[in-house]
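Researcher: Next entry: 7-cyano-7-deazaguanine synthase (Pseudomonas flexibilis).
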Amino acid sequence: MNALLICSGGFDSVTLAYRLAAEQSLGALLTFDYGQRHRKEIDAARLAAQRLAVPHLVMDIGQIGRQLSGSALTDDIAVPHGHYSEETMKVTVVPNRNAIMLTIAFGVAASRGLDTVALAVHGGDHFIYPDCRPDFIRLFGEMQARALDGVAEVALLAPYVNTDKTEIARDAARFGVPVADTWSCYEGGDLHCGRCGTCVERIEAMVLAGTPDPTPYKDSQYWRDAVARVNACTP
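Model: Predicted structure:
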């Protein structure tokens, strides 16, 4: 396998990069600049590529991103705080983002002679993001096999799609990921906020995995209240 990994620079995708590199299956990282609120995650992806000694491709799709309005990740909308399973987190959806990125990634992989497109979607994303669910991943892979029929054979790899983020945290420890140098926070401040959905999920996963989290957070305790609030609402 020689994979093109869609890498945002976040905890999940950088962990998958280190896993693939350890398996000698990583060909290149592909990062999309779609007009997100900040560029810290792009810088984190670039650093990961440098450390893993693989090409880092940055694709500017800002013109497309400007048309995908209404998300807290791209517009001047307050980033909600809390757990991903809360209804308020739907404001972080960027419509069809993964479908757009994957379509481009398959074309790039075919053009560069790479045989796999990889991404780090996981089970915790299913509630909020429809283009992270197992059925979407399966059907998209089938669609691309037809789109490239007779041109190239490119598989779709999503090893975490049926697991939760705790498994990613275990892999981060297993493969020596420099966790503090990944960027997940939606806020884009000097430190991870510790309160947005992705910060809460990141801290919770590391705790459940029993692995140390060297990331400095502005609020390292809020996640407990967020998780307790969700658990109280679960039958």
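Model: Note for the record: The longest strand covers residues 26-33.
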